[in-house]
């Protein structure tokens, strides 16, 4: 949770979202710090894996495979 807060803070993500809702997309693009924003997919992927593991998943040796496939498909988008 703290890491997500730091990524939001240093990437200016919330400000960029707010500006894009107001139609100021060029300003939103200009203020976004993409070096920090690129940490977000890592945190999201870890949270998905941790949720599956906490829910009792991860018992068989290839239980991580569907998460890897989903993450790869998200990268293609």
List the helices and strands and how they pair.
Layout: H1 2-11, H2 13-21, H3 25-31, H4 34-37, H5 40-54, H6 65-76
Helix pairs in contact: 2-3
Care to describe what's here?
With 77 residues, the protein is mostly helical. It has two domains: 1-35, no CATH class; 39-77, no CATH class. The protein has six helices and no strands. The protein starts with a helix and ends with a helix.
Could you give a short description of this structure?
This protein has 77 residues and is mainly α. Helices cover 74% and strands 0% of the residues. The protein has helices at 2-11, 13-21, 25-31, 34-37, 40-54, 65-76.
Any key phrases for this structure?
2 domains; elongated; 6 helices; 77 residues; 74% helix; mainly alpha
Nearest-integer average pLDDT:
86
Radius of gyration: 16 Å
Q: What number of structural domains do the residues give?
A: 2
Number of strands: 0
What is the share of helical residues? Answer: over 70%
Structural class: mainly alpha
């Amino acid at each position: 949770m703290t890491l997500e807060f730091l990524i939001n803070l240093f990437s200016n993500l919330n400000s960029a979202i707010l500006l894009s809702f107001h139609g100021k997309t060029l300003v939103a693009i200009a203020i976004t710090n993409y070096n920090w924003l690129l940490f977000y997919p890592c945190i999201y992927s870890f949270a998905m894996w941790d949720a599956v593991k906490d829910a009792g998943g991860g018992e068989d040796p290839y239980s991580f495979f569907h998460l890897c496939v989903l993450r790869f498909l998200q990268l293609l988008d």
